[in-house]
From TrEMBL:
The lineage of its organism: Eukaryota, Fungi, Dikarya, Ascomycota, Pezizomycotina. InterPro entries: ANL_N_sf, TauD-like_sf, TauD/TfdA-like. The keyword Cell inner membrane does not apply. It comes from Aspergillus rambellii. It holds the Pfam family TauD. The keyword Oxidoreductase applies. It comes from the Eukaryota. Keywords: Oxidoreductase. This is TauD/TfdA-like domain-containing protein. One of its GO terms (molecular function) is oxidoreductase activity. Residues 56-297 form the TauD/TfdA-like domain.
């Protein structure tokens, strides 16, 4: 504290900054030369540039690197259509947040021009930018919980009388001049920031509490500031001394010498200046020309981090929390995280750290309704996996993706090591608890159940421990058999321990049931299974019929999940009233407090699909399933295209006999009809992408002339996979049949468990292929299951 007092007394830097700035126009030509060397500059030749990917990419690059950009329009644009389109393109192509409303009464754009006609009107509050007075150093919307990261000014009419010079100053340069004690104090949430009357959006919220300085979550080597001196009130003596030191530093002529001053010569009519509002302060001297007219837009709002509830020193004074936040998260919080996460924002290198996540949870303003989820771009699997692959290989200490994570494998189908999806360890454990509660609530599992699990363990797969813990959380007693026990040993355990529930993948379950069917009637009578719970893929009608032929009228339930989302829904025909052998779909119940499901038209994934197709379909209509998890904050899953097809339905009235009334309002039914067969299929618990399979079959070293994959056989209780190939004659560079067989086994993940279900056929001519009935073409994929 003593150091702060001393700094405050000795920091006498003279007159205000704007006095120094007023001397700028006399040397404007020299400044213009300096500006051309300092401010990046792009030219837009016509309106189409605002949507051209290369031009938009250049804009994004300059905003990321410098945080400052000038654009010259070489066409008339009185309506600012270029700027409107550009901001929309930055949102669609690079994940920038959409523009914010300037107040309760104005939309995206605000006309910045002197207004002398309204100052005397009752109830009217004039913005500082609408006057002809100077406007000292500030950042826009410093009074918001989530200030916009960027703003742009379109010059429609410059000040022709030498006033209205725009000055900008890089925050990083300013902060480096401040003592560490001052910086640390500015990082603490000990400042009350009043909302100017003209910008009040909710009458009951006229001020906020927060910090003025923070580490930039998009670049942890940089600093971000929110500041407007006349509306900030310090709440402690230490905060007051730090604030005064900051103001004194801003008044220093030495500080002003580091600023860039943009006169009317530098920003003539048709110019646009874009700034990173977190990394640059800006100011304006007096306006002399009452006809000066700019148009402003602000976008990409982001929760300003705070030192609240932190205790450990990080960097030069901002703090870092010790534990990761856990629990159910609001959609508002999750959407805030997407703005600083590389899954959704290309300019972000690493996921947010603990401090940023805590700040988002602690400081997110209360939700006043459901956020506009349909405005969020869709998350494609290719985008997700590309970022995961990069993050898994990045060993930087700043890469939080590799920290304190539960890793789930995405499955086979590539022939190499599986992709690992990282989930915060605490979030994963809490999700297991919540899924167990859902199993108990929907009566899939009861406390009296003894469950034997056949799920896979090892080779990076975690199915066994996942299902075991979930069902224990539901109250059941578990036997972890795993996938290496023989059907005979499993059957012996079922009888010996009086197990009543068998759970596993469909293929594993069918193998055990087939063994039970081979027992004598006396031995079979010792098996008292009353319930089957399957995962990974669907049981087919013939498989269900076979199970009930052997075991009687057992209850058949299911749990659905993925590496990306974890377990999130359960199937119980007794609850939903569906489950006949003729059904080609399965109903799953999910809790809307844990996950949001949208159903989009199948055309939504087509190239060039209009934005109107991205809005959810009504209840009962079938389409692509898009998922948003409310259980993932650190690595969010928002509007993820699952690759499945289905429809949404209300919980049937008959469920009232099982589900308590207090819970029914939160439950909904997803009718899953299967995978989107345009892109992939599943076999033995693995999703296999057609594009990946095609690349394998067309690899030069495989020497394949024609190929065909056949999934399943008619009326078979098990799902087989047959691969037929016609290969070129042996030559140098072509794999031998033995080598090719090994590669195919690796690709399709063939093991001792499922090798009896896999068949590779080497054909000598094309007669062995099945052909289309019309063009007589060889069909690459035949599905006899669905």
């Amino acid at each position: 504290m003593q150091n702060l007092r001393l700094l405050s007394r000795t920091a006498n830097f003279g007159d205000s900054l704007l006095k120094h700035t007023r001397r700028v126009p006399s040397g404007s030509r020299q400044l213009g030369t300096a500006v051309s060397q300092t401010v990046p500059h792009l030219v837009a030749h016509d309106l189409s540039c605002s949507k051209t990917p290369s031009h938009v990419r250049d804009v994004r690059k300059h905003l990321d690197q410098k945080g400052l950009l000038k654009i010259t329009l070489q066409f008339p644009d009185d309506k600012s259509k270029y700027l409107e389109n550009l901001v929309t393109s930055l949102h669609e192509q690079h994940g920038h947040g959409l523009p914010i409303a300037h107040s309760s009464s104005r939309g995206w754009f605000w006309d910045v021009r002197p207004d002398r006609t309204t100052t005397c009107q009752p109830g009217y509050h004039q913005a500082r930018s609408e006057t002809m007075e100077d406007f000292p150093w500030h950042t826009d919307c410093s009074y918001e919980h989530a200030p916009p990261r960027f703003f742009a000014l379109h010059v429609l009419q410059p000040d022709r009388l030498g006033g209205g010079t725009l000055s900008v100053m890089e925050v990083q340069t300013l902060v480096q001049t401040l003592p560490s004690a001052v910086k640390e104090a500015l990082c603490q949430p000990n400042y009350q920031i009043a909302i100017p009357p003209e910008f009040i959006k909710q009458p009951d919220q006229q001020r906020i509490i927060g910090s003025l300085v923070a580490l930039d979550p998009l670049d942890r080597r940089s600093t971000m500031v929110r500041f407007r001196g006349e509306i900030v009130t310090p709440l402690t003596e230490r905060a007051a001394i730090a604030l005064q030191t900051l103001k004194d530093t801003l008044r220093s002529p030495a500080t002003s010498d580091t600023a860039i001053h943009l006169t009317a010569d530098d920003l003539p009519a048709g110019s646009i200046i874009l700034l990173n509002n977190h990394r640059w302060l800006h100011a304006r001297n007096n306006i002399h020309d009452p006809s000066r007219h700019l148009r402003r837009v602000r976008w990409d709002a982001f929760q300003f981090p705070s030192g609240k509830k932190t205790h450990r020193r990080h960097g030069w004074g901002c703090t870092k929390s010790s534990t990761m936040p856990t629990g159910i998260f609001t959609l508002k919080q999750i959407l805030e995280v997407t703005k600083v996460h590389p899954f959704y924002t290309s300019r972000v290198q690493y996921p947010p750290n603990e401090k940023i996540l805590h700040a988002i949870r602690d400081e997110a303003s209360p939700e006043t309704g459901t956020p506009a989820l349909p405005l969020q771009p869709l998350l494609h699997k290719k985008t997700l996996y590309r970022e995961i692959a990069r993050l898994l290989q990045d060993l930087s200490p700043e890469n939080t993706y590799r920290r304190s994570s539960y890793l789930s494998s995405t499955g086979g189908g590539s022939g190499g090591l599986p992709m690992m999806f990282a989930v915060d360890g605490h979030e994963n454990r809490r999700q297991r608890m919540q899924t167990g509660r859902l199993l108990q609530l929907t009566r899939v599992v009861d406390p009296a159940d003894w469950v034997l699990s056949l799920h896979t363990s090892g080779k990076f797969y975690r199915s066994l421990d996942l299902i075991t813990e979930i069902m224990e959380n539901a109250g059941a007693t578990l036997l972890s058999a795993g996938n290496y026990m023989s059907p005979a040993k499993v059957t012996e355990a079922l009888a010996h321990y009086h197990v009543n529930v068998l759970t596993g993948d469909p293929s594993q379950i069918i193998q055990v049931v087939r063994h039970i069917s081979s027992l004598t009637p006396a031995a079979r009578s010792n098996i008292q299974l009353t319930k089957i719970i399957y995962t990974s893929e669907s049981l087919t009608g013939p498989q269900i019929a076979f199970i009930r032929t052997v075991l009687g009228d057992v209850q058949i339930c299911s749990v659905i999940g993925s590496a990306e989302a974890g377990p999130w829904a359960v199937g119980n025909p007794a609850l939903t009233g569906r489950g006949s052998l003729t059904d080609t779909s399965m109903d799953f119940v999910f809790d809307t407090r844990n996950v949001i499901i949208e159903i989009l038209p199948l055309t939504a994934l087509d190239e060039g699909c209009p934005a109107s197709a991205l809005h959810p379909l009504p209840l009962g209509e079938s389409g692509i399933i898009v998922q948003t998890s409310l259980q993932r904050l650190r690595n969010p899953l928002v509007r993820y295209i699952t690759g499945d097809v289905g429809s949404l339905h209300p919980l049937p009235a008959s469920a009232s006999s099982i589900i308590p009334e207090a819970e029914r309002a939160y439950l909904q039914v997803l009718r899953l009809t299967g995978r989107d067969r345009r892109f992939s299929f599943d076999w033995y618990g693995n999703y296999l992408e057609f594009d990946t399979m095609k690349s394998l079959m067309q690899a030069d070293e495989c020497g394949i002339l024609h190929w065909q994959v056949v999934l399943g056989q008619p009326n078979s209780p098990v799902t087989t996979l047959e691969v037929r190939v016609l290969r070129a004659p042996p030559r140098v560079g072509i794999l031998s049949d033995e080598q090719f067989t090994k590669r195919l086994h690796t690709f399709f993940d063939v093991s001792s468990e499922n090798e009896a279900l896999f068949k590779l056929v080497f054909l000598k001519d094309v007669d062995g292929f099945e052909r289309s009935s019309t063009g007589r073409k060889i069909v690459n994929f035949i599905d006899r299951v669905h």
